[in-house]
TrEMBL record:
It comes from the Eukaryota. Its main location: nucleus. Residues 165-180 have a biased composition (Polar residues). It comes from Glomus cerebriforme. It is found in: Nucleus. CDD domains: GAL4. SMART domains: GAL4 (SM00066). This is Zn(2)-C6 fungal-type domain-containing protein.
Amino acid sequence: MTNKNNRIKVTTACQNCQTRKVKCSGEIPCRYCSKTGKKCAPGKPGKKRGPPPGREVKSRNSHSRMESLYNNKDPQVQEELRNFKNTNSGYHNDKNMTKKNKRLKVTTACQNCQTRKIKCSGEIPCRHCIKTDKKCAPGKPGKKRGPPPGQEVKRNVETRRENGEFSSNSSYNYITKLSD
C-alpha cells in the first residue's frame, strides 16, 4: 500500500480506465493495462471547470460599477439607491424570470412519448414527434390515486357504526376480518 504523500496525482486517466470509470495509477502502462495486457493510451482530457470565458471579467466589471454607485455622494444617486433597496425589484423576482426559465409542467405525455417512455416537452406537436416526423396525439391520462382497495369500505363501515346505523357488530366484524 502506498503512502498518501507518495501517490501520483493523475489529471487524466488512460482510455481503458476512463471506460471502466476507475482510478488510473498514472504510470505508463498503468496497473490495470499491464495486468490485463491491454494497450495503455492516454485518455481524453476532462472538461475545464469554472466560469465560461469572459464571464468572470464581466462580473468583476459589474461589481466595480455597483461599488462606485454605492460610494457616490450625489444626493440623487443616494435617493435612487434607497428606493432600490426598499422595493422588491431584485434579481430573483419572479416577474424578472423569462418564459424560457420557467419549466412547463407536463401532466400527460403524448402517445409516442408514453410508448417510448421518454420525457415529453408538452407542446403539441412535441419536440420528439417533430424530430421523428410522427403524428403527435395526446396520451392516456395517468392512474388516479386514492386509498388502497378496501380502506374506503372500512372507513365507511366505521363511520356508519359510530352513527348507529348497524344493529349488531357481527357485520362490522365480518368486514373488518375481510379487509385485514
